[in-house]
Amino acid sequence: MPTELERVAAEAAGCTRCRLHESRTQVVFGQGDPHAELMFVGEAPGFHEDRQGLPFVGPSGQLLNRLLAGIGLRREDVYICNVVMSRPPRNRDPQPDEIAACRPWLDAQIRLVDPKVVVTLGNFAARTLLETSTGISRLRGRTHPFQGRVLLPTFHPAAALHAEGRRFTGQSPLQAMEEDFRTLARLLAERADADADAPDPAPAVEAAESEQLGLF
Ligand code: URA
Question: If you measure from the C-alpha of residue 117 to the centroid of ligand 1, how many angstroms do you get, rounded to a whole number?
């Protein structure tokens, strides 16, 4: 029996809700742990993703892998998806109607994976999920409430790659991303501590059941 997420992925594979279906090679659905605590949301597939049918497998994906490894995580530990699942021609920005057409697929993935923490990569993902026109430079570096979860915006890896070799008076985009990933690691550690400290409901239930059985 396919899971609900697999069923949605199969349905999304034939999506023709926006014009991007005319030029894409294939739909790039999310990939990773279907029960991940941590979800990354990027912008749209690029050349390599369109060819391979997997998110973040090109240069941006390699940087994402390195940033994940820096905080002790592997791709398999997280879930990675995009705001738009079909590659825009020549990697142009996704248009508002394309983002809106793809939104139900993104919402379904968020609902079914049910992550505790969502990290948005770049302007489009942050603005789409936070429903704001504020730019990523002002949004990043702190958490935002999102559907009962925590959302941490950071730059898109492509922005960090693009800026490589340039001089910055303050932080470079890559340094900012590294800082955001350290924030992410702290956030995940705090959540793990809070989960460990939470009272285990099982003994109370067992006690109640034992009482019913007249064992006390
Ligand atoms: N950039 C994105 O935003 N998503 C991908 O999957 C690849 C590159």
Answer: 19
Domains and their CATH numbers in the chain: 4-212 (3.40.470.10)
The CA-based dihedral angle spanning residues 123, 125, 127, 130, taken in that order and rounded to the nearest 10 degrees: -140
Ligand 1 centroid from CA 75, angstroms? 14
157 lines ligand 1 (CB under 6 A): no
Q: Is the CB of 183 under 6 A from ligand 1?
A: no
Cβ of 44 less than 6 Å from ligand 1 = yes
Distance 211 CA to ligand 1 centre (A): 56
Q: Is the CB of 49 inside a 6 Å radius of any atom of ligand 1?
A: yes
The string of DSSP codes covering 118-171 is EEEESHHHHHHHHT----HHHHTTS-EEETTEEEEEE--HHHHHHTTT---SS-
Structure tokens at 75: 């791709």
Does the global pTM surpass 0.85?
Answer: yes
Q: Does residue 128 have its Cβ closer than 6 Å to ligand 1?
A: no
Q: Which pair of tokens denotes residue 165?
A: 């070799």
Q: Quickly state the pLDDT bin for 203 (edges 50, 70, 90).
A: low
Mean pLDDT of 102-125: 98
At residue 212, the pLDDT reads 46
Measured distance CA(197)–CA(191) in Å, rounded: 10
Classify 32 as helix, strand or coil. Answer: strand
